[in-house]
Amino acid sequence: MSSARPLIFRGNDVEGFIKSIRRQAFQSDKLEDDQWIANYAATCLGGEAFKWYSSLEPEIRSNWRMLEEKLLERFTPPTEGVVEEAPVLPPLPQPTPRVGRVRIIAEDLTHSGYLDRELSIVNHQFMLTERPSQALSVKLEPVKGGFYRARATNAGSGEAFVGITWEEEPDISHGSAQYGYLPPDSKGPNPANTFIHINSSAAFAAVKEHLFYIKTPHESSSTWGKGPTQVDCWRETPEGRLIICYQKDGMAYPLDLASNGRRRLRVVADLAAYNEVHGGQWLKSYLVIEPL
After folding, report:
1. I want to staple 111 with a disulfide (CB 3.0 to 4.6 A). Which of 106, 235, 236, 266 is the partner?
2. 74, 143, 259, 273 from 240: Cα distances, Å
3. Who contacts 68 (Cβ-Cβ below 8 Å, separation ≥6)?
4. How far is CA 147 from CA 52, 242, 254, 265, in A?
């Protein structure tokens, strides 16, 4: 654990806390030492969690397997009858179609730039470029529910829509390190549509011959983006920022865009959790449309 961000558990997100404890035990080569793990976990408790821990029997406090069971029993929130509420989104302006370049603004200007019109040769995703002349232009097309569809008008791969494809089945809960990419969808929001992927076993041949291999998502041999894809996922805030949302069961969950200063972009459910699990210095970024 980083000394700058000490792990303190006060009763919220018990599963995330247990995962963090296990990760620290693994990094310290103590994964099989139940007493060491239990003693370490005790140093990470605060508030009600510490008071509860102090009331436990000594044999439980000194045995991680027993302590983990008691933590889950005490701090797992009830789920029966609980209806998950959609996060509150700011009031949205009336969607209006327009065309512009996609500008990426990060907390650090070295992570800022534009969405590149040329796709990554490795995994066929939109990335970041510093050159305005290389910027991707999109037409924002209003769709139902106050969302936009972003039609790329000058992408190097031809006309396409910009959407999000998840690495795996999405988990958007607090503490989730799940993430997605910005790939092109050649035909729109239908999930059965054809996507463009590089065949990873033929990547060098593809570069040499300037060829791309067209496959459906299920046929792709790429190791990226095995989860679902959404295209009608863009919303605009009153400040003019574009945000990416994950839609499920009629609810919209705003996501974070992150950049790492090496042209790569990720869409994440929880940026702090993503940085902790995957490493690197990913910074929160946002998108705006610059008029042409």
Report:
1. 106
2. 44, 18, 20, 27
3. 18
4. 46, 10, 12, 22
Q: Measured on CA atoms in the order 71, 74, 79, 82, is the torsion positive or negative?
A: negative
Q: What is the pLDDT of residues 11-25, one digit of tens each?
A: 888 998 998 898 888
Q: Go through the chain and tell me how many residues it has.
A: 292
Compute the distance between CA of residue 274 and CA of residue 283 in angstroms, rounded to an integer: 11
Pick the closest to residue 257 from 181, 188, 198 (CA basis): 181
Extract the tokens encoding 106. 């990060």
Can you give the pTM of this predicted structure? 0.55
Rounded-to-10 torsion of CA 171, 128, 138, 209? -100
| CA 25 and chain centroid, separation | 26
DSSP H/E element including 48: helix 47-54
Token digits for 79?
């789920």
Which 3 state secondary structure label does DSSP give 179?
A: strand
- Residue 219 pLDDT class (50, 70, 90 cuts): very low
Q: Distance (Å, rounded) from C-alpha 157 to C-alpha 144?
A: 27
Q: What is the distance between the alpha carbons of residues 168 and 198, in angstroms, rounded to a whole number?
A: 18
Q: What is the DSSP string of 225-291?
A: --S-EESS-EEE-TTS-EEEEEEETTEEEE-EEEE-SSS-EEEES-HHHHHHHH-S--EEEEEEEEE
Q: Of 38, 5, 46, whose CA–CA distance to 21 is shortest?
A: 38
Beta bridge partners of 140: 98, 150
Report the half-sphere exposure of 148 (CA within 13 A, side-chain side): 25
